[in-house]
From TrEMBL:
Keywords: Prenyltransferase, Repeat, Transferase. Pfam families: PPTA. It comes from the Eukaryota. Belongs to the protein prenyltransferase subunit alpha family. This is Protein prenyltransferase alpha subunit. GO terms for molecular function: protein prenyltransferase activity.
């Protein structure tokens, strides 16, 4: 764990951790969500410190997809997850507004929201996202995201 935190952008450490985590998930059965949530808390530290670590963002997405409540589309828990992810992404965008991985994870989270959230809640989330990034003169990354939102959620 310590090596992953010290060298969080190094895919080798993250790959080993990824393999161990998914072995634990398979062995845990019904308790797998606890392991996944623990690992996501750890990845939150890595994502905040090493915001351009592609392996940590892709692992985060795979863990989200492995959560039983995401797979079974349980609304309340998944909405809480979406809110936590958007909060993390907001923190990361403050420090590096042009980070490709953060923008791609935002799209991943919004696609997840589209499959689960009621239309009224989804519209509120989309409008909030558009407002967040359209204030002032958005840079090219933010503008591309706003355009993507408008196209995906028209």
């Amino acid at each position: 764990m310590a090596l992953s935190l010290i060298a969080g952008e190094n895919p080798t450490y993250l790959n080993v951790r990824y393999d161990i985590t998914f072995i634990q998930i398979k062995e845990a059965g019904k308790e797998s969500d606890k392991i996944i949530e623990r690992e996501m808390q750890f990845l939150r530290l890595i994502n905040q410190k090493y915001r351009k670590s592609s392996k940590s963002w892709s692992t985060r997405q795979q863990l989200i997809q492995a959560l039983s409540y995401v797979q079974s589309k349980q609304l309340e828990q998944t909405q809480q997850l979406i809110k936590k992810e958007v909060d993390l992404l907001d923190i990361c965008n403050i420090h590096e507004p042009r980070n490709y991985y953060v923008w791609q994870h935002r799209k991943f989270i919004l696609k997840l929201a589209k499959t689960i959230m009621p239309s009224g809640d989804l519209v509120g989330l989309i409008n909030s996202e558009k407002l967040k990034f359209s204030e002032g003169k958005p840079d090219a990354s933010a503008q591309e995201y706003i355009d993507w939102l408008s196209h995906q959620f028209a």
